[in-house]
Design goal:
Helices cover about 40% and strands about 15% of the residues. By secondary structure, the protein is an alpha/beta fold. The radius of gyration is 36 Å and the shape is elongated. The relative contact order is 0.10. This is Polyketide synthase.
Amino acid sequence: MTAFAVVGIDCRFPGAPDKDAFWRLLMDGVVTDTEVPSQRWDVDAYYRPDGAAGSMNTRRAHFIDNVDAFDNDHFGIAPIEAAALDPQQRLLLQTAWRALEDGGIDPRSLAGTPTGVFVGMMSSEWTSLQLLDYPEVTAFRGAGSGYFMTANRISYHLNLTGPSMAIDSACSSSLMAVHQGCAALRAGDTDTVIAAGANLLLTPALSIFYTQAGLSAPDGRCKPFGQSADGIGRGEGVAAVVLRRLDDAIADGQPIYAVVKSSVTNHDGRSNGITAPNRRSQVELMRRALALAEVEAEQISFVEAHGTGTFLGDLIEANALGDIHEVRGGKPCLLGSVKGNIGHTEGSAGIAAFIKACLALHHGVLPPTVFGDSANAGLRLDAHGLRLADSAQQLPVHGVFAGVSSFGLGGSNVHAVLESAPATAVADPGATGVLMLSAPSEQALRRNTASIATALESLDDQELASFCRTTNVVKRSQRHRLVLEGSRGLLVDGLQEFLAGNRPDLASSAPMRKVAAGVGLMCSGQGTQYSGMTRSLRDANPVYRNHLDVAAAALDPYLASGLYAAVFGDDPDSAHTSLAQPALFAVSYALGKTLLQSGIRPVFGIGHSVGEVAAACLAGVLSVEDAARLVAVRGQLMGALPAGGAMLAIDLTVEQAAALIADKPGCVIAAVNGPRSVVVSGAADEVSLAHDAVLAQGGRAVNLTVSHAFHSPLMEPMVAEFRHEMSGLAPSPAEFRLFSTVLGREVEGHEMDTDYWANQICSPVRLFDAVQAAVSAASTDYVAEAGPRSTLLALARQCGLPPQTRSLALCSGPDSTGMELLGVAATLLRDGYSPDLSPLYGRPVGQLHRIPPYVFGTSSRFWFDGEAAAAVPKAVTSHLREQTAQPAAVTPVAERQQPAQVPTASEGAILALIADVGGYSVGQLARTSRLSDDLGYDSLLQFRLLDRLRADYPHLGHISIVEVLPKIHSVGDVVDFVVERLGSDTGVIQ
């Protein structure tokens, strides 16, 4: 049978707002019952200790806090609609979102996928209260009610196209949802499943029913399998799990809580009452589940039982379990029931038990079961091979099996066999990373930043890279983003600075890009090298190191001491041009390959002098072997020339520099690096005279530390031998555009033959012309320098690089920490691009890390005051009534032709109307607010908005929906449309 991984969990149970709090509650043996809150119903009106007809025999149950809070903005739901939603729908939306994130999935990334949603529930008391008040029934109330909408609401708002259904099998509903989700995965209907359950106690109806049926515990507590068991205590719960096929979860590096080996469902058939359980059916159910899982009863370490604490239910379940486990001999099966902690959560009872079992397998501990003062001796648990878990019980480390049972009130049963998660690849350790958060608003971003900052403070340093990678996967797709890179301490400091308002540069609301980032690539020339260059990056980034190894393997046959000795050794000769040029090529090649491997789109390439070899190699014009041979031969032949030349950088135009050296025949222009950045090269004595002349004119001149006069006639003696050594060079077409610093223009791959490289030796470096040609021909978002320093990035600015083009330093010089590539990743992510981060991190993503769940806002509250006619606060109720009434009648044509005063349409009045339709305050709207994405104005609300505009501004009565809807995407669009149309009717814009 196919195995399924439980990769994500989120839950809200009484006393536990999330799964971690739920686990602490279980381990501490907490019981969560309280008196019925006044928000739910007036308990005094229905409580009778004797359980008289029409009454309930308890004042207590188990309740979730703050069930009226809902972050409607996050899901793009207008307040007017949110107010009409069953709170079970609202809470399920948030719980499903958090469960997906817990499973290492960005919920937005599932849009358009056949992800399945299965929700178990057995009551919707909100529906009864809303739809039985007939005068107040509206379109919003209808769509906000009913079981069917609980699953559909999740599928709709996350744009999921897989199977979506609500399931009601009474108390087994949510474990049935898990079972049906597994079936859909097995059938190939979907690759990811959200299985959930919900139960809220909004009326005393079921409490009265349980009392009248003799099932209600007077103290509101379940005592499963306890001597004092006297019925059930009701409880609330909203929970979701994310299921994947086990092989898929492992392949995607998702963390796994537990594995579903099998799940089985059946029915009691005709027992001694429709509400009474059937021992034979339960036994058959468990035996079939074990057989499908290929597990023997003796292998089951514990069973999370249905365990309600009713006399008949506990007796039958204990006997059925005994029929399975009495063969165990001296090693009894541990028995537990979560209902002792949080009560019987009815429609969500099955998933509560399922989650408890998953967490127990994950932590290797079975929490204690709360069952009252003592176990029920009459159940003969010992004889049945069972032992009630009266304290926390350690579980074996590997290969642990467990059973989970959930039995419905009408006879629908489900049993699942779980196994502890398999050993999976451990995430590569790393103490640096790129942290990313996103949220739909600035306020939400700050709220979640605080949560992540708190989590980072206690995180182990070596877990940081995995933690950060998971944020890159899970937290990337919403409108407002915060991105920063560094060590744990730097990240915590940066987050705190952002929260204090001191680092707004860390955040962005740039739109998400659907294309790769366009980057102009510049490769450094000689003079940028230094001993040990990129050592930190080589040590930290295996991807960079692998590319450097490739270059080294190609260069080593030409180097006496090997490339790494030249780059990282202490050899004083490493600065010699015969070693410096190959070392620069290797570093530039490895940096460029690492960047290109991340998926960026090279817009152009430019190399400065020897850097052109690296640029041509990265563009595929030269193979790495040909490029290595070329650069090694070039460096050796240059290094063999007599020393004595000199080079001078001067702050003059090329015309001024040419005039300066006109009378110095041994001195030439070697490079034009900018409009006032020229290098002259030649015989040392004549270069010295040029230096003096510049200073005499009040200019600036800097002597460059070089071994030879490069790009001067002093190089001429080695050109012929270079041509001979490189004869037969066969360049390939360029894979991206190259701009030549020899020709000062775009160059085709076939032009970069032996003659090209021979001419390059003595020709001046025309960087200024190459950059200007590139800028004129190609638009780029960024320019990156592949080299050990960022020299060319500054020069490119002088050459006319547009100010909006961002600079990306891949290595910042001798003080480099090796984190520059992480800085590049942070920049691209912040700007809305989605690079492949593995090369920039240096390792595959590997195993994802559990990160804090999304923190939803709680300031928006939606509830009723107990009366069916008051489903929402009075102000919102008036909106509901008004907006969902019959559309305003369109003014007849004959009437429209009569002279009439055109009403004034001020921006403020139109904003007030838009706010009124959606249930917002005017202060919550901005001209840029998007109707659909930000404010939740779906087609229904847009129709209502148009009807209101027609009603308030009769001169718009002739406007059709087809004409308007394609034009209004934002609040500003609506304002401008109305003002323009009313103005055109009178010739004056009001």
